[in-house]
Design goal:
Length: about 290
């Protein structure tokens, strides 16, 4: 039952068919101003005005609804206009069918539901896993990926340059870690950080504006270890456009997902130690 799931994660109380949460997970107000309607399955914080369906609440906070509620609430905003596909055309990926591939990418069975990962059993993406991507709680894009350890990605026909898919972590809604790939972003988010995926090695003006539009005031560059020069260029570009900026510089050539699989505690230390770029960093990178 979803009520028990919420109660196990937050301090709550029941009043007039409302489930009240003492500390709002979105703004931190601690006066019971975040409430969930048990009958309507919607939530609203009267301080920060964050609101939406119960599915939205759980999606933003990485919680999992029971199967019945998952099916009945996930249809809102679940479409890809230009491809004329709906997310419900795909069934959930069965972890038991591809354990080695998924383990190699740091994905456990719970992650399949947490991130809504699907499987295409027909059509042009047949035999591939489908990873939906969200701007907050709105589904805006999806990727298809081969179910092999070194699998290729396949894009849906949408303009990915104007969107900023991201996953909301539980710790800080004001800082966002910007990653190149979707599995990198998922790995960062699983460690409790807000992460965004740019779906490539470039960041556009539209995406930078989205970072600010969503309320993030600090952007943390978290690219692969062999992309240090590109990381510093992103750092400078975001700073010029009015954002506070930090950077994660990995010692080796790992990407965040590889490092998560090998040593998640080490990745978390790197993420916590994000910092400003120094002159020494610039000299080391650009003298190579």
């Amino acid at each position: 039952m979803w009520i028990e799931n919420i109660q196990s994660n937050f301090e709550t109380k029941l009043r007039n068919n409302q489930l009240l949460i003492k500390i709002c997970p979105f703004c931190g107000n601690d006066r019971w101003n975040c409430e969930i309607s048990i009958e309507k399955k919607i939530f609203h914080c009267w301080i920060c005005n964050q609101k939406g369906t119960l599915y939205t609440f759980c999606k933003l906070l990485g919680l999992v609804l029971d199967e019945d509620n998952w099916k009945t609430t996930e249809n809102k905003n679940s479409y890809y206009e230009k491809d004329e596909l709906t997310i419900d055309m795909f069934g959930y990926l069965q972890y038991k069918d591809y354990p080695k591939v998924l383990q190699a990418k740091g994905l456990c069975e719970n992650d399949i539901k947490r991130y809504g990962i699907r499987y295409a059993d027909k059509g042009k993406f047949k035999g591939k896993m489908i990873i939906p991507l969200y701007e907050g709680n709105k589904l805006v894009y999806a990727l298809a990926r081969d179910l092999t350890i070194k699998g290729n990605y396949y894009n849906f026909r949408l303009d990915k340059k104007i969107i900023l898919p991201y996953y909301l972590g539980k710790i800080n809604k004001y800082e966002i870690y910007l990653c190149e790939g979707v599995l990198d972003a998922i790995s960062v988010n699983k460690l409790g950080f807000t992460s965004g995926v740019l779906l490539g090695t470039h960041i556009t003006k539209e995406q930078i504006e989205k970072v600010k539009q969503f309320g993030f005031d600090t952007a943390i560059i978290c690219l692969d270890g062999d992309m240090k020069a590109k990381s510093i260029k992103w750092y400078d570009e975001l700073g010029k456009r009015g954002l506070k900026t930090k950077i994660v510089l990995f010692d080796g050539k790992d990407d965040p997902n590889d490092l998560y699989v090998r040593d998640s505690a080490l990745l978390k230390r790197y993420l916590i130690d994000a910092r400003k770029v120094t002159l020494e960093d610039r000299v080391k990178v650009f003298m190579k």
